[in-house]
## 1
Amino acid sequence: MSDCHDTGQPKINLLPNPNILPPRPAAERPIIVAIVGPPNSGKSTLFNRLTGLRQKVANFPGVTVEHRMGKAKLKSDQEVFLVDLPGVYSLNPRAEDEQVTHDVLKGERPDFPKPDAVILILDVTNLGRNLVLAAPILHLALPTLVLLNMADDLAQRGGRVDVGALSAELNTPVALISASKGTGIDRIQQFLLGTAARLNAPPARIELPILQDVPKCRQWAAQLGTRASYRAPAPPLWTRRLDAIFLHPFFGPLIFAAVVIGVFQSIFSWAQPIMTALQDAVTISGVWMTHYLPDTPWRSLLIDGVWKGVGSVIVFLPQILLLFLFIGILEDSGYLARAALIADRTMARIGLQGKSFIPLLSAYACAVPAVMSTRVIEDKRDRMATIMIAPLMTCSARLPIYTLLIAAFIPNTHILGNFLSLPVAVMLGLYFLGFAAAVVVARVLKSTILQSKGSSFILEMPPYRWPTAHSLSLRVLDRAKVFLRRAGTVILGVAVGLWVLANLPLHNGHVPALEHSYAGMIGQAIQPLIKPLGFNWKIGIGLITSLAAREVIVGTLGTIYGIEGQETSQTLQAAVHHDLSTAGAIALLVFFAFAMQCLSTLAVVKRETGGWKWPIFQFTYMLALAYSGSWLAFHITQHFTG
Amino acid sequence: MPSGHSTLADMTTGQRCILDRLDLPDDLARRLMELGFLPGNEVTLGRRAPGGGPRVYRVDGSEVALRNETARHLYVRRDPESDLVVLK
C-alpha cells in the first residue's frame, strides 16, 4: 500500500496528502487509535491535548477498569477516536488493568473493537526503562507511532537521542515531543491522518526478546538505547533540592500540614465571596421572575421547584472547582506523591497506606472522583477499605445543610477568648467527626473482612514539574461539566419530582396543604422511625429527597416552607425553628455527617467494585452509623439543653 | 563483605549497592523488576520519609519508594568501589 515503509526515516513525514485519497465508505466503523504508555509518561496530558474536551470516561463492562474515549479532529475534517488505556509497565496479563490493555490491543474483548493503530508514549528522560514496553507493543504488529515525551526535560538536562536511528531500529516511526508544551504534536496529526486513510503499515518484523523475561527485555531496551546514541539526562537537580526540603525530617511534615490546611483555608475564604454573589443572583432572579410571570402552578414549579432546587446546588460550584484546581496543582507538580510518602506511616496505623491519602483528600470535595482515584492503590483490600470510608469525609455537598443549621441554631458566641467562635468550632467538629468515623471504620474493616497480610507500598516519585495552565484548566472545566450535568439531571429531577409530590393530589382543584400532599403522606409514614432522633415528618421529607444528593435537603426545605422574598436563607433559618429543637438540629447534623445520601457515589462505587455487594454494604453501615449517632446526639444534647 | 545476607533495609542513606535477588512473591517481584529492581542493577539509598516511613531508592534512572517490610526482602551486595556517595 505504501512504500514509505522501507526508508528508515520517520514515515509520517512521507505520507501523501490524504485529501486527494478516495474517502472511506461511510458504513465502516470509526477508526480507533489506542494510546498506551507506562504510568507517569504523560499519557493523559497527550490525550487531553489531542482531544480537548471532546472526551468521555467509560468503563469496560464486568471489570473495574476504566478507559477514556475522545475524538481527535484532524486537519482533513476526518475524525479519529482515541482511546486512553490504563498506564502499564508491560502487557503481561497479571493485574486487571494490564489484562484490559492486553485484551483491547489484541482485539480479544467482544465489547470493544480492535484498534487500528497504536500510539506508544514513553518518557524519554528514562528511555532504557520505558522502551521495555515497546517490545510487547511491537509484537502486536499494529501500525505504531512511538512518541518520546518530555523532550524539553531531556534537552534541558543535557540528554539526547537519535530519533532517526531509533526509528530504524524499531522499524516504526518515532517522534520527539513535549505533550505539556505542545511541541511535536503536528507529527501525531500526520500519523492520525495516515491511519484515517488506512495508509500506515504495521511495523516490519524485528527481533524481539521473550516478553515474559523482564531482564532480557530490559537488556534489549538498553541495546536499542545505545544504538540510538541515547545519552541519559543529568539527574534532576531541582527535584533533589526540593526533596531535601519537602522530605526533611522536621520541615517536611510541617510543610505537609501547611499545604493541607492552606488548601482548606483558601477553599473556604476564597470561594465565599463568589458563593455569596451566586446565592444573591439566584435569589434576586427568582424574585424578579416571580414578579414577571403570571401566578400559575407553572410559576411555582419553575421558581420553587426548578430554580430554588437547582440554584441551591449551583452555589457550591466555585468551592468544588477550587478544590479540584488545588488537587490538580498538587498532582501535576509531583508534590502529591511526596504527600503520599509522608502520609504512609500515619495511614499504616489505621491499616491503610500512603496512596489512600490522595483519594481521601479529594473526598473532601466530592466522593465520586475520590472513589475513582483509588485506582492508584494496587492492593485490592486497601483499595476497597479506602472506597468504603471515602464518603465519610466531609464533602462539599454537606455544606449547605451544615451552614443552614449552624446559622439557625448555634449562637455566635466566642469560646477560647476571641480565638474561636462557637459556629466555627461546631463546623470543625463536624469535619473531625467524619474523619474520626473514617479512621474507626477503616481499622475495623482492615482487621476483619478486609484483613491483609502486610500490604506493600510501591510508589514511583516523579520529578517535580511546573503544572501547565492548559492541563489545569482542562481538569477544572471537566469537573465543572460533570457537576453541572449532575445539577441538570439528578438534582433537577428530584426538585421537580418533589414539587409534584408536594402539590398533589388536588383538593377541589386546589393545591393541598402540605400534610395532605403525597410528600406529606410519605413523611408521615416514616415519622415513627425518625421521631426518636428528634425529627418530624417535614424533616422526614427532606431525609428522603436527600437520599439522591445531600445538598437537595436545603432546596426541599425551601420548597416545603414555600418561602418567598429576598432573604431566602434568613427566612429558612427562622422556619426550621418550627420543626427542630436544638437537640434535633444537632442530631440532624450528625445524621448528615454519617449517612450515605448520594446516588452518584453509590453508582460509582458499584462501577468500581464491579457489583452491588459493596455499595449495599456501604449504604447499610453508614445508615446504621447515622441512625445510632444521631440518636445519641439527640439524647445527649437534650439532656444538657433540657 | 558478607554477600547474600544483607538486604536493602540494612543499608543507610547515601549507600550504594548491587541488587542480588528478590525474595518476594512472583507478582510483587515482577512489579519491582519492571520498576528497575533487577538483579545486577545498582541501587542508591535516598531519603527516608519523615518519622521512619518508606524510603526512596534510586534505581535504573528513577526514584521509587518502598516500605521497609518490602526492602527487607531485596538482598544486595555492597558496591566494592564506592560505598558512600554524597546525596545532592
## 2
Amino acid sequence: MSAATEAAIPRLLSTHQSDLLDEWVREQATSLRSTSKIKESELRSQSAEFLTVLQQATQGGNITDIQGPTYGRVRDMLSDVSRSRSYQGFSPTETAMFVFSLKRPMFARIRKELASDAEGLATVTWAATELLDRLGLYTMELYQKSREEVIARQQEELLELSTPVVKLWDGILALPMIGTLDSARTQVVMESLLQRIVETGAVVAIIDITGVPTVDTLTAQHLLKTVTAARLMGADCIISGIRPQIAQTIVHLGVDLGAVTTKATLADAFRRALDMTGQRDKLNKPRA
Amino acid sequence: MDRIPILKLRGLLLVTIQVDMHDRLAMQLQDELTTRISETGARGVLIDISSLDIVDSFIGRMIANIAAMARVLDAQTVVVGMQPAVAITLVELGLTLPGVRTALNVDKGMALLEGTALITDADELDAGYAD
C-alpha cells in the first residue's frame, strides 16, 4: 500500500471531521430510528470521540493492523460502546451499525476528494472499507463476548440459587435439590453442603431429591460421591424424596444405594435424623 | 525436621497434623503411632486433620493404613475435622476410607470413642465378675 493511500484516510478524517460527524450521526439516527434506546446527544458525543481517536490512530500511517499499539484508544472506545449497547439491549445489527454506518459518509468524502484519480479512488476506498470492516468485526466480537459474560453470570447465579442448604434443627441440615443434576451443578451442591456442614457442625444432612425429575447412573454416582464425602467429614447423609419411578429406575440401573440411608419423604428422613441425633423426645416438649 | 506430636489423653492418643504432610513424615507417623499404641495400650486414636488442606493418594492411603494398623492393635481410629476440599479429593481419588470412622471435630470424635470405650470396659468388667 502506498504512502499516499495511508495518508489519505487520516487527512480526510481531520479535514472533514465536522461534516463527517454530522452525516454519520444522521446515518446512525436513521438506522436506529425505530428505537429510542440512546439519546441523540449521547450518540453525537460518542461518534465525535470515536472520530477523534480514529484520526489519532491512523495518523501514523497504520490503517491495517487494528491490534497495534496506536489503536489502543480506539479499541477501548469500541469495547465501551459494544458493552454498553449489549447491556442496553441493542440488537447485534444495531451495535454493528455504529461502525458500518460510517462507510457512507466516509466514501462520499473519498469520492469527492479523489474524483479525478480513478486508481487512487479505488485503492483508498478499498483501504477504508477494510479498516472499517475490521473495526466493525472487532465491535461484534466484543458485543458477543459481553453477551456471553451475561449468560455465564446468570448461569452462575442460577447455580447458587438452586442449591440452598437449610438448617432444619440443631445439627440437622437439609438440601432440597431442584432440577436436573449435571456434573457442574453437583460439584456446587457438594461443595456448598460440605461447607455448611463445617460451618454449622451438623451431624446429619438430608438430601431431598423430590425436585429432581430423572435419575440416571451419573446422577446416582454424584449422589453417592456427595454422601461419601460427607461421611469422610463425619456427617451422616440421608437421601429422601425418592419417587416410585425413581426407585424403579435406580434398581433397573443396578445402582447400589445399599450403604446409604434412604427415605421416601423428607418427613421420614427428618424423623430418622432426630433419632440419630437423639433429639426425638425434644419434638414433643415445648422448647425451654 | 518436622515431627507430628502424639499426645496421650486418658486412654486415647491424639494426633494433630498441623504441618504439610509429606511422604516421609507420613511414614514416620505410621511408625511412631504404632509404637505408641502398643506401649500405652491405648484403645482409641484420634487423628485431627482439620489443618490439612492438601491431600494426595499417598496420604489418603496412609490414613487408611494407619487406621487399619490401629485396628489390628485393638484401637479404634477416628479421623476428625476433614476439610470439604480434602473430602472431595479423596472421593474423586476413590479413597473412601471404608472402616475408618469420622467425626466433625475433636470433641465429637472423643465422644464417639468414649462411647465405644465405655461399653467395652463394661463388657470386660462383667466378664471379670463372671469368672
